[in-house]
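Retro notes (design track)

What went well: tokenization of the new backbones is finally stable.
What didn't: we kept losing track of which sequence belonged to which structure.
Fix going forward: every design gets posted as structure first, then sequence, in one message. First example under the new rule, 564 residues:
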């Protein structure tokens, strides 16, 4: 359940903190007091895009924080799959909004908006103003049916989607094969040219690296020769100051002392080793210089070959290996074009097999949907009768689309008759705004039962409702809140009377600044607020009595429901 909401510097809200209760939490207030700002803040916390004027006038940043207490083990397990571990049974979602950017956190750890939405979808379901209009669209109706059908249908739907993508890929490949003979000949000629160019170059893996090494050596041969000649002189015996001559003198001097002491003998041995290594170095340099020859012809050949390979790299790949891979790919395409009819026939066979598989999967998906539709029809009718649709008839009509989609081939439409003797017709042609609100309430109730959603939030679900129907909706809201926490913004006194916790949202002017506040009402305060909703600006003793009686009757209804 949602235990706490903290909002700071959002629109007209300076800072408010609300502790919600189990059951039915009602939020009421005058039109324009800022009721929707509060729930808008919840949406902001859950990742909704923010308007440019979201940040209020009370600072440079805004903050929304929601604290949930997790009581359902299934929800805990689903959260763990998202790497969210409740701490002391709580999950804290927060979002700090600054100019041009925002930071979202789950239990204090920074997260992405998509992660926040994924977690929020497990914890609460928000029914915003005008959302019931989406119920008129067949796509939304199919989404509702699929959600109601549960895990078995979701698995089948995923199989259909995977099979559909495979079928589409084969269709694209087959379409690519549908070219005329003139175009085929052009493509064959082009592929043959590319393949021939690579083949005639005769490149081999690693050749470019070998040539680049040789090119560096040849292009720097003068510097190499000059430096090695100088080093050879330094390590030889032609110069009295050379290392070889000086080392020889060291050896000769130490030889005279060799027999005087064991330690001197060891030092003499080291000097001999150094002289030997220096001689080896000098000979190696001499040998390298003897073998070192600069050939203008070899340099030109190396340069030309590198240019040729680099030209191929520019066209076909940045390395010899990629050029050769490209050649193999083009060879396969060439063989397909040279054997186009055979290749096309193979694709047709594969496509037919894929279509047959997709057809069977879609048939099974349709069967699952129709079975779920029968149950959903009955449960929606039962729920609507509880909402004062006394003679309602409801049907989910199926139509087969001409082609497949990732959702199968079903198109459905909700049909309804609200009066005896009337034929069932599409929702858009029958129901009013108030009726549509009640239908959406029935659907939301059923879907919440399916997915174990712990928190339901309704923003003015009572649009276009009054009288006896308003009482039925109020009773339905009370029934729902017996199983899960409900937050509801309402204008109806009948719904407000059912509150387990009643909050008033009001707008005040402080130091010439308009501020929205929220406060929890006690029993007397709740009665006065219901009286205001009943009587408008002038609240008489009679209106207060009516409000008190409404509150008492609501309590009787809740007590009766609890006993049952």
């Amino acid at each position: 359940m949602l235990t706490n909401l903290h909002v700071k510097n959002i629109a007209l809200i300076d800072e408010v903190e609300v502790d919600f209760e189990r059951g039915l939490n009602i939020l009421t207030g005058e039109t324009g007091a800022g009721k929707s700002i509060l729930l808008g803040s919840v949406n902001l916390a859950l990742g909704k895009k923010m308007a440019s004027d979201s940040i209020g006038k009370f600072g440079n940043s805004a903050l929304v924080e929601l604290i949930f207490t997790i009581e359902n083990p299934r929800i805990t397990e689903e959260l763990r799959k998202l790497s969210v571990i409740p701490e002391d049974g709580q999950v804290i979602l927060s979002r700090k909004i600054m100019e041009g950017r925002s930071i979202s956190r789950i239990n204090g750890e920074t997260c992405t908006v998509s992660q926040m939405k994924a977690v929020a979808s497990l914890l609460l379901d928000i029914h915003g103003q005008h959302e019931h209009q989406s119920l008129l669209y067949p796509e939304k109706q199919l989404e509702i049916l699929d959600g109601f059908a549960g895990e078995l249908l979701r698995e089948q739907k995923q199989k259909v989607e995977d099979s559909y993508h495979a079928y589409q890929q084969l269709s694209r490949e087959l379409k690519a094969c549908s070219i005329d003979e003139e175009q085929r000949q052009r493509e064959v000629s082009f592929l043959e040219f590319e393949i021939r160019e690579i083949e005639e170059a005769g490149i081999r893996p690693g050749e470019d690296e070998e040539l680049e090494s040789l090119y560096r050596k040849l292009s720097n041969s003068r510097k190499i020769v000059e430096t090695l000649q100088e080093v050879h002189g330094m390590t030889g015996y032609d110069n009295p100051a050379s290392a070889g001559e000086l080392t020889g003198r060291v050896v000769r001097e130490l030889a005279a002392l060799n027999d005087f002491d064991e330690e001197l003998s060891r030092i003499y041995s080291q000097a001999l080793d150094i002289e030997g290594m220096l001689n080896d170095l000098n000979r190696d340099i001499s040998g390298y210089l003897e073998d070192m020859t600069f050939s203008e012809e070899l340099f030109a050949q190396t340069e030309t070959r590198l240019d040729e390979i680099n030209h191929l790299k520019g066209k076909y790949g940045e390395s010899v290996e990629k050029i050769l891979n490209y050649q193999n790919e083009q060879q396969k395409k060439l063989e397909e074009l040279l054997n186009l009819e055979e290749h096309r026939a193979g694709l047709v066979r594969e496509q037919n097999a894929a279509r047959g598989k997709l057809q069977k999967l879609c048939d099974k998906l349709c069967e699952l949907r129709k079975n779920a539709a029968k149950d959903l029809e009955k449960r929606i009718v039962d729920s609507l009768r509880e909402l004062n649709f006394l003679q309602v008839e409801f049907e989910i009509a199926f139509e087969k689309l001409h082609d497949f989609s990732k959702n199968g081939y079903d198109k459905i439409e909700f049909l309804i008759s609200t009066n005896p003797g009337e034929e069932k017709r599409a929702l858009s042609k029958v129901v009013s705004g108030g009726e549509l609100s009640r239908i959406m309430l029935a659907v939301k109730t059923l879907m919440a039962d399916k997915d174990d959603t712990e928190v339901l939030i309704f923003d003015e679900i009572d649009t276009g409702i009054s009288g006896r129907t308003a009482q039925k909706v109020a009773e339905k809201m009370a029934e729902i809140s017996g199983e899960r926490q409900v937050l509801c913004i309402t204008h109806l006194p009948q719904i407000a009377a059912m509150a387990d916790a009643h909050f008033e949202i009001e707008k005040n002017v402080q130091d010439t600044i308009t501020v929205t506040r929220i406060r929890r009402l006690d029993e007397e305060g709740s009665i006065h607020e219901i009286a205001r909703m009943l009587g408008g600006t002038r609240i008489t003793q009679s209106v207060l009595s009516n409000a008190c009686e409404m509150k008492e009757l609501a309590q009787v209804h809740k007590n009766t429901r609890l006993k049952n």
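Added context from the reviewer: The mean pLDDT is 85.
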